[in-house]
Amino acid sequence: MALRYRVGVGSTRQRARSVQDKELRKVALLDAARELAAEQGVREVTLTAVTARVGLHPSALRRYFESREELLLELAQGGWADWRDGLLAELGAARDLEPERVAALVAETMVRLPLFCDLLTHVALSLEGAVRIERARQYKLAAGGAYDRMVVAVVTASADLDKVAAQLLLTGAMTIGAYLYQLSQPTETLRRLYEEQPRWAHTALHFREQLTTLLTTIALGARPGVRPDVGGPLPDVVAGG
């Protein structure tokens, strides 16, 4: 009986170590992908580069992620949590903030998350459509939950932005932010072109300023009594429809 007990404990501990080691390796892969994306951009991240950075053979990645798309989608899901936490921290216990101030805070929290801005473009283009339906559902639920929390926080902190206005502001932030971020990261060819034509670079390379201006315009125009009544429900951008 004593021997059987000791073997049982050892097996349990071994399984626990195995689970813990697997989770640590998964975190290491995510960190490697995050670093590579920061260095080269999301579009340049490859499974070979990710696994090489953590000392794994590319085939070993399948134990943790089924594909490059699933790996990057997990980073995007984490980005939603980071944006939610950042915005809620900025708004804090504030009340009666003017629309311009709310828009500036939303813009600033996006600017602080360049990887998330980059990932948002790729989520819509390829990532969420290339994974299993269960994984896509998990991403949608996490993103939608973060979005809903931010809508409530914006309404609570604002002087005159209602739920619809908050939805318009946050939808504008994620869509415009993703686009402007791509413009702000020109290729070498575009950099040379901007040197020749500085007026084109003026818009492309001022991410924070452009995003803040556009979100301020949305916030002011989305207020109840100011925004146009276009009829019908707002599109659910997070859900993709």
TrEMBL record:
The lineage of its organism: Bacteria, Bacillati, Actinomycetota, Actinomycetes, Mycobacteriales. PROSITE patterns: HTH_TETR_2 (PS50977). GO terms for molecular function: DNA-binding transcription factor activity; transcription cis-regulatory region binding. The keyword Signal does not apply. This is HTH tetR-type domain-containing protein. InterPro entries: Homeodomain-like_sf, HTH-type_TetR-like_transc_reg, HTH_TetR, TetR_C_34. The keyword Transmembrane does not apply. Keywords: DNA-binding. Residues 23-83 form the HTH tetR-type domain. Residues 46-65 bind DNA. Pfam families: TetR_C_34 (PF17929), TetR_N (PF00440). It comes from the Bacteria.
